Automatic annotation (TrEMBL), chains A, B:
Domain Thiamine pyrophosphate enzyme TPP-binding: 399-538
UniProt subunit comment: Homotetramer.
Catalysis: reaction(s): pyruvate + H(+) = acetaldehyde + CO2
All copies of domain Thiamine pyrophosphate enzyme N-terminal TPP-binding, residue ranges: 5-114
Coiled coil: none
Family per similarity comment: Belongs to the TPP enzyme family.
Protein name per UniProt: Pyruvate decarboxylase
Superkingdom: Eukaryota
Residue numbers binding Mg(2+): 444, 471, 473
Origin species: Pachysolen tannophilus NRRL Y-2460
Entry note: cofactor: Binds 1 Mg(2+) per subunit.
GO molecular function, one term: thiamine pyrophosphate binding
Cited PANTHER family: PYRUVATE DECARBOXYLASE (PTHR43452), PYRUVATE DECARBOXYLASE ISOZYME 1-RELATED (PTHR43452:SF30)
Amino acid sequence: MSTITLGQYLFERLHQLKVDSVFGVPGDFNLRLLDDIDEVPGMRWIGNANELNAAYAADGYSRVKGLGALVTTFGVGELSALNGIAGAYAEHVGLIHIVGVPAVSSQQKQLLLHHTLGNGDFSVFYRMSKEISHASSFLKDAASGPSEIDRLLRDAYIYQKPVYLGLPANLVTAPVERSLLDTPIDLELQPNNQEVESDFIEDILKMIKDAKNPVILVDACATRHSVKLETKQLIEATKFPVFVTPMGKGAVDENNPRFGGVYVGSLSNPDVGQAVESADLVLSVGGLLSDFNTGSFSYSYKTKNIVEFHSDYCKIRSAVYPGLQMKFVLQKLLKLVGAAAKGYTPVPVPSVKLINTPAPQGTLLNQQWLWTKVSSFFREGDIVITETGTSAFGIVQSRFPKNTTGISQVLWGSIGYTGGSVLGAVLAAQEVDPTKRVILFIGDGSLQLTVQEISTMCKWGQTPYLFVLNNNGYTIERLIHGMNAEYNAIQPWNHLDLLKFFNAKKSESIRVSTTGEVDQLFADPAFNKNDKIRLIEVMLPMQDAPINLVRQAQLSEKTNSSA
Amino acid sequence: MSTITLGQYLFERLHQLKVDSVFGVPGDFNLRLLDDIDEVPGMRWIGNANELNAAYAADGYSRVKGLGALVTTFGVGELSALNGIAGAYAEHVGLIHIVGVPAVSSQQKQLLLHHTLGNGDFSVFYRMSKEISHASSFLKDAASGPSEIDRLLRDAYIYQKPVYLGLPANLVTAPVERSLLDTPIDLELQPNNQEVESDFIEDILKMIKDAKNPVILVDACATRHSVKLETKQLIEATKFPVFVTPMGKGAVDENNPRFGGVYVGSLSNPDVGQAVESADLVLSVGGLLSDFNTGSFSYSYKTKNIVEFHSDYCKIRSAVYPGLQMKFVLQKLLKLVGAAAKGYTPVPVPSVKLINTPAPQGTLLNQQWLWTKVSSFFREGDIVITETGTSAFGIVQSRFPKNTTGISQVLWGSIGYTGGSVLGAVLAAQEVDPTKRVILFIGDGSLQLTVQEISTMCKWGQTPYLFVLNNNGYTIERLIHGMNAEYNAIQPWNHLDLLKFFNAKKSESIRVSTTGEVDQLFADPAFNKNDKIRLIEVMLPMQDAPINLVRQAQLSEKTNSSA
């Protein structure tokens, strides 16, 4: 009987699920575990600059490849990662947080080890993580290891949520039967209750048949729970106009003639707002209705006919169908919807305008111009990452080419997130298709939280585009409260020295201040080829912001001060 | 009746407790609160680069001034700080974590706000923080605000532990009677039970009278629970030899003729080990017996006569006296101990040797030489901060001048900690005595976790000495496991460009590789004056470490792999 270590078993399972980059920081309770990564051909240990960044990176990797993994050490390491884990929980991102914990014998003796609170409580950090994990396990023996690992990985993948594994240092080398790997982890969804599913589909088919002016609205969970294909087919089969939310951007081909733009409640472009709100049926796929995703809950469909498709339930108006999974529902619906929608006469859809008013070459940049312009730089297959703040709001104005992946943390909204997630995305892109370009837009304020992860990209010779929007501090906060307050200012950095400081091998650092400079840059074929790491400092006015952010900020300030 | 806002009340109370610098990061649920800092003359908002660093900074500030404060925002901000809060919990550091949370009305409506998990649960982060807080409060109304704030601040101060305050955005501006400020927060300890105290003192006086060869052993909590003065008087009154633990370094004047060195169990210098372990009575003040503080629990007193003085209990051999607070016990003991100890004949104590074997000027640096040498650079009143790793172990070999403050996170041991805490310490030093020098020793690996906080020191024009020990990666981890493993390597940075990148106004960056260069630097009067921010890159061999660390690492590896 051939055996491997429990540590190797874990990484073999991850490899089977196409997780080939493992993020994290070494620490004395996980060092032996890290040795086992090298035992699995094709796996690599990335080694982050700190644990929060590692969590963000695992999240970014998962958004491209479907699952991510990070390894931290007991107490100090795992707690540093929690904000990133909670973000994955909020935004439906599947990942496993593997924590190297003290040996079982040390725990039993309640030793006053370093990295403990000094009170002999070894489960306190596990309890904290449980609050933001879909499933968790704190191993006590090696025998249960393989089944627990399989359970956690299945849950992380299926539910697209973080899971937690506490792995005692002494169990890492315990022998496990290699043949267990021959049975793949079951990643299939349980079938829906057929009767409930049939009832539900019957009802919506009737609504579709009756609708004169239906629309499809696609949100984040369409991507996260893998129904992009079904959604595409639904659009093709029905010809209904399709819109996305800010978090749904990238879920739908924006060059599809039926694509009408981004719907953000009262913050939408007027023609988009009109189109969605006058619909007599809304088919909402993978909705995540947070404030920043809806213009502070300002959705105002005049119709009461709303059908919601979610990963673990569906809904018609107020009626909930618990447990009904949208994937199967959509697949079944696709077989029948063509006939139901055949009476529908396609209406014209709003079109995204991408033309800036002509301006002299020396005109100073502003947000409005920039976000209209960037679409001309994007190309098929790009991964576009936008930081919370002006970037995440500005990108709504752009048009993505076919097969563009959009990454943004709109619901959780932790500033600095993209500084870590860009690393995960760029490594995932390298594994999926090395010609894929990864393009980050981050503000100068957010950059400061996680800047050291750019060093990790230098270490790995990655070649992302890093657009640093320099507007002299936290502009999103200024708009919400304290426009000129000292607390919204930051220490100004010499951004053009950053890549040199981090010792990048092949790099380029450029500052652009005018429309002419950006025009020239985007027109340069050399610049368009992602053959080196690039930092582009974009100089923007301090108080300038995309109009949707200005209006969102006013709504937020109001909510915060309401009694 | 004159009123102020609840926010101002909070900062006025902090100001009364001499907390004049508030750390943190702005976020939309705390912006209005930050306005109130300016209402209190003498208070300043520091504004950190990220929240973990802010927590570390508040911890460093507290270790100098007795209490610290940080402000974060709901969810994203507060979770990022947790590792720093847990460290303060483990190491007995008093601070208040103030979290700006959504308005009460938003919570009641369970709005799907950004910075939430998207499930309407607004108390989840509060529950997580409770696990690592001595006391906590999640305000629901303004009326209870002042008394809750007073309770939390009292607890943080008295127990020297972190406390948590969740402050809804809409309550910040609620009116509070100004006259409440006229009654100071009661910071007095409750008196001890007099009968228990008398019994305890009677017993130890007898032990002291009988002892031929007693010693005093001083640990971290002597500093944290403010019995440094009583300890000093105890040494003077008894003439007993006194030793410190690694975490106790700085608690005792090392130039006192009765000071014998640092005791770390089996990792001690042989003469120190011999002196402590042959004692027939050990008076242990403020002990915190973690693995790294004791040479992996290798304390081996031959005597069974151990008396322990703690902040909330005392102990004679195995007998615990719950609730007995050492401060009062020591004060009472001091009145009687002189008579009891008058039969004691002082024995010679080990002396700290600080002479390096003479070497040619061009000799490359090593850890042994460096840690013997640094004592010559220290001067009275310095604050010396050493990062977990070679620095925290190496500093044990040095001698501190009078009134030196030592800061190191030996029990919690989170790498990167000092990168944040040095900021807190230097700002506190500025408030206490601007001529005080703050000296940091940090490894190149640890620096990467929290490097951006150096930018905050540049923003505030602070002038610390930053010694960056460049030994090409995580040497402490290499010694524990994986000496040449890729996972213990890091991206090499151009450290000499760091201060320029962060836009420091007045700075100096120097690299030293030889003993001659260090000799010259320390002998230079200009270098000794802290009139600018300085980064000194110290080049050291990759596998070189202080001998106590080498031996500790072997012990740790053994514990980790034991079944």
